[in-house]
Amino acid sequence: MVRKIKAPKDLSKLKETLLAKRNVVKSRVVVCGGTGCLAYGSKKVFELFKEEIDRHNLFAEVELKNSGCHGFCENGVVVLLFPQEICYLRVRVEDVAEIVSSTLIKKEIITRLLFQDLNSGERIAKEAEIPFYKHQSQLVFGSNRFIDPKEINDYIAIGGYEALAKVLEEMTPQEVIEEVKKANVRGRGGGGFPAGIKWETTRQAPGEIKYAVVNCDEGDPGAYMDRSIMEGNPHRVLEGLIINAYAIGASEGFIYIRQEYPLATENTLHAISQAQEYGLLGKNILGSSFHFSVTVHRGAGAFVSGESSALMAAIEGRVGQPRPKYTRTAVSGIWGRPSNLNNVETLANIPLVINRGADWYSSIGTENSKGTKIFSLVGNVNNTGLVEVPMGTTIREIVYDIGGGIPGGKEFKAVQIGGPSGGCIPQQFLDMPIDFDEFSKVGAMMGSGGMIVMDEETCMVDVARYFLDFLAEESCGKCVPCREGIKQLLAILQRISRGEGNEGDLSVLEELADVISDASLCALGQTAANPVLTAIKYFREEYLAHILEKRCPTKVCQGLITYFIDPEKCRGCGACLKNCPSEAIDGDRRQIHVILQDKCIKCGICADVCPEKFHAVRKLSGEPVPAVPLNREICRGEN
Amino acid sequence: MKTLHMIIDGKEIQAEEGATLLQVARKEGISIPTLCEHHELSPYGACRLCSVEIVKGGRTKVVASCVYPAEEGLVVNTATPRIQKIRVIILELLLASSPKGEVEKLAAEYGADSGKFAKELTFCILCGLCVRYCQEVKGEGALGFIGRGVERQVVYYPHLAKESCLKCDQKCVSLCPTCILPNIFGLAIPAFDKTYPTVYPVRLLDENNLFNLSNTIK
Ligand SMILES: Cc1cc2nc3c(=O)[nH]c(=O)nc-3n(C[C@H](O)[C@H](O)[C@H](O)COP(=O)(O)O)c2cc1C
Ligand code: SF4
Ligand code: SF4
Ligand code: FES
């Protein structure tokens, strides 16, 4: 039977009791239950651990935990063993019995499950020494691994809700706002707006009723940092939200979670009901005179509903579409009442600021960007996953030290930062620090933290086209510059990639991009041209090659490439001929094979099936297809 | 009501609190082009043709004058080169889909090039005048929007239209700044009764209507 915590000192007592209980346990097994690891079967792995621990009668000394995401998702299922801090990667059900009998009982490490350094081949046992983790600083995200998201006691045991207790016991709302301002916490959801200033605007806005709102819409393709926090440590966001509500004077709040995040919704709902039972939500929180309750609102799955005015319209039950926002939502938001909206990660930073103080917090990072930022590192990079680094870390450190560099020894070309309306940052800025303002200066933006690494084989026309494609579908379609402008930007890029570009295209693109940025109603349109603008700015030569020479330098744009069989290399094995789906290859045994260009559909299958040792199929771009030799016989014995 | 002081196009003027920049400008005899604005309907801010530049805190910003409220001390410029450029491009974008009616007139006035962008005729600029008239003035919901992004379009709901349109003044038709509604509405009305017994929205521009339109309106 849970008893309500009626005063801050009872919270500390509860923490001590929980810690004392913990100390009895000799070792702990943590199985990651984040969405990535779930997909690799972590539920089954967890069940098996339970059975094995029971079978060996270890339940008294081994504690088994299910946790949220640790970030190294491509290596799921991730299993941690404490106190040794051993990290096993890619654990499958077959491995569980051995982990229990060898590592837990005999204290032997299973080498094959350890991280292996790609270059040196060295195996690393300790989690903190794996390069992917070693160069991170997981201030916000790190506690995921110590917490079962369904267990409020786990959060309390590591100091959870202490910041709330401190706020209610020792600080006035204005003091909380001052602390957040002093720490210079900037919004992690896209704009980088100073949270403290927004809180103050909401607090000072006239009106009895105010709302505190969390944005967990996270619509950027490939981004999942908010999801992983919400799924893995919902109480931390809740604590941040309650502190926010206290500071702005709200007694009601909303957590807006996108439809596609069922686990985040489940864990959040569970956390809310636990917090209510403990007296951390509801009336007279921790025995104070402060009341606050919160409702979860499930989003309808459109990217644009993450925009603040659209999100608030959706909470009101209207279509999630931006409205002209010349009065800020902090002054007139949900039902016309002052509403403070913050991103999940922003709020997850708040307990840290309160517990350790603004001075400590603002000692991390750069002059105008404080604390850490979580990125979703994907693309052409060896280690992908969620990474949390202090502001000021360079892009190079993220790509090379944490990400382990580019696979296949290829060259780095650019990194796309900031989601679909972010920008491409080229090689010359590799040493640029992670910083809200530095990113904006080069035409990108921090966004919510998407980071896509692109190697030398990436075509920058194709990349811009990809993001515009996304935005054309995700624009709400209300205002003309965004709806029609994106459509035309896309049409021009499609023409360029088909080889039908003409000289004036670049200036039309730039001129149109300017108007879309200037005149669109909401930030989606205002930033939609960023990917095109940065691509043209930093890779102009590549655009000109497409337009003037009808050449795609990276040989990606289908309309600009031809497949060609090198007569010097073809050995007449016939693999291409057999596999071509379009009957576009002519040839016979012992004869040089030839692609009939008018039949070729450019699927590239011939290149894939041509045996490695011959490697005869080439892609050409911007050059004529060489003539077929008259004599196509291949001399005997040469093979 | 408080009186505000502002500067529009270099002229010092007074405005009433609560007015939009568009209303203030019009009162001063400054003309600003609009396509989605109508005095009987709530401001919508979708066509962006009414964009103007404001100077605030030393910074210049483009805003839609039909929704931006008058503010004390605001400096507004309604016809800078940047604004003219925005209007021309917006009209050029609209010409690609709806080269008729008001768009055609404004395009001629601003010298917009009808060949600048790839054409795909829809004859609807999604200004929402018809939809808002139906909802706000008539209190009916016979017209509405579906889809988002490039898929967005105006539809009517046959089961509602059947009830409301026949007894209505059908002024939505004359509000339409392009030619689509006047041309299509007549075609749609007889169909309200019989053909569509469902509650599903029906596109004003089905392939058939679009085909007819493209052929009759050149
Ligand atoms: C098209 C669009 C989509 C957005 N999507 C999100 C989102 O998914 N999550 C988010 O936190 N902010 C999103 N934002 C930013 C929000 O409008 C808002 O600035 C943010 O939630 C404020 O919180 P913060 O100050 O803590 O970042 C989006 C903005 C735009 C224009
Ligand atoms: S900018 Fe785009 S997403 Fe925003 S209101 Fe206009 S059409 Fe909708
Ligand atoms: S049909 Fe006419 S009035 Fe209705 S949204 Fe389209 S252009 Fe505007
Ligand atoms: S009249 Fe202002 S946006 Fe259309």
Kindly list the characteristics that best describe this protein.
heterodimer; A: 639 residues; alpha/beta; Glutaredoxin; Rossmann fold; Ubiquitin-like (UB roll); 5 domains; five-stranded mixed β-sheet; four-stranded mixed β-sheet; 24 helices; 19 strands; 14% strand; B: 218 residues; alpha+beta; 2 domains; three-stranded antiparallel β-sheet; 8 helices; 17% strand; globular; binds flavin mononucleotide; binds iron/sulfur cluster; binds FE2/S2 (inorganic) cluster
Arithmetic mean of pLDDT of chain B:
86
Relevant CATH superfamily of the largest domain in chain A: NADH-ubiquinone oxidoreductase 51kDa subunit
- Helices of chain A, by number, come to 24
User: Which strand-content bin applies to the residues of chain B?
Assistant: 15-25%
Shape of chain B: globular
Describe the structure.
The complex is a heterodimer of chains A (639) and B (218). Chain A is an alpha/beta fold. Chain A has five domains: 27-82 and 86-125, Glutaredoxin; 152-362, Rossmann fold (3-Layer(aba) Sandwich); 372-458, Ubiquitin-like (UB roll) (Roll), CATH 3.10.20.600; 461-548, Up-down Bundle (de novo design (two linked rop proteins)); 561-620, Alpha-Beta Plaits (2-Layer Sandwich), CATH 3.30.70. Chain A is built from 24 helices and 19 strands. In chain A, strands 12-11-15-13-14 form a five-stranded mixed sheet. In chain A, strand 13 and strand 14 (423-426) form a beta hairpin. The longest helix of chain A is centred in the last third of the chain and has 19 residues, at 480-498. The termini of chain A are far apart. With 218 residues, chain B is of the alpha+beta class. Chain B has two domains: 3-79, Ubiquitin-like (UB roll); 129-216, no CATH class. In chain B, 35% of the residues lie in helices and 17% in strands. Chain B contains eight helices and eight strands; from the N terminus they run E-E-H-E-E-E-H-H-H-E-E-H-H-H-E-H. In chain B, the strands form two sheets. Chain B has a five-stranded mixed sheet, sandwiched between helices. Chains A and B meet through helix 17, helix 18 and helix 19 of A and strand 4 and helix 2 of B. The complex binds flavin mononucleotide, iron/sulfur cluster (2 copies) and FE2/S2 (inorganic) cluster (FES). The site of one iron/sulfur cluster has 14 residues of chain A, from helix 18 and helix 20. Residues 304, 322, 475-479, 482-483, 520-522, 524-525 of chain A line the site of one iron/sulfur cluster (SF4).
